[in-house]
Amino acid sequence: MQLPEQPVAGQPDPAVRRNADQLMAAIDEIEVEKATSYRDDTPLPTIGAAPPVQQPGQKDMSQWAIDASGVLKGVSIASVPIGFAVWLVGQVDPLTLGIILGSPAAIALAAARLVAKVKDANQAAPQPITNHFHGTVHHDERTVTSTTRGVIATTRNHH
């Protein structure tokens, strides 16, 4: 038996549909009335009266980036005379020239990275652990082996 206040099975509740329609109408009204973005073009405040000044020294980089850039600078400067001589000869294809001149830089960069990784690995070697105890200490050196078998697992520890 169907009560009159219940919706028919499989049909949406008219009150829910009416609320959804009101909500959609409110959303459409908001979208038409208000902008969804805003650009503030007011200039940013300056702190202090002094103009910006170029700071001395190298830019902030990681140590690895500083090392790699130094290697690349050295290799690139060393390859300039070789490239100039080959360019004067004019017998080499530009792609081949690029490969010949680029390979020492790539090899040097790879070697520098390998050295840095080995150095990091050596520094991260575990240090021996030393414990200092004061008072009576009992040191137990028993070895426990464990075997777990069966559908319902049972563990038996043997000393």
Proportion of residues in extended strands: 5-15%
Number of helices: 3
Instruction: Indicate the overall shape.
Output: extended
User: What is the ordering of alpha helices and beta strands?
Assistant: HHHEE
Query: Which sequence of strands runs across the widest sheet?
Result: 1-2
Number of strands: 2
Q: For the report, how would you describe the main beta sheet?
A: 2 strands, antiparallel
Terminal residue distance: 73 Å
Helical/strand content category: mainly alpha
Mean pLDDT score:
77
Low-pLDDT stretches: none
| Rg result | 38 Å
Summarize the amount of helix as a percent range: 40-55%
Concise overview:
This protein is mainly alpha-helical. It has three helices and two strands; from the N terminus they run αααββ. Helix content is 48%, strand content 6%.
Describe this structure in words.
- This protein is mainly α.
- Helix content is 48%, strand content 6%.
- The chain contains 3 helices and 2 strands.
- The protein has helices at residues 14-33, 63-89, 94-123, and strands spanning 145-149, 154-158.
- A hairpin with a 4-residue loop joins strand 1 (145-149) and strand 2 (154-158).
- The mean pLDDT is 77.
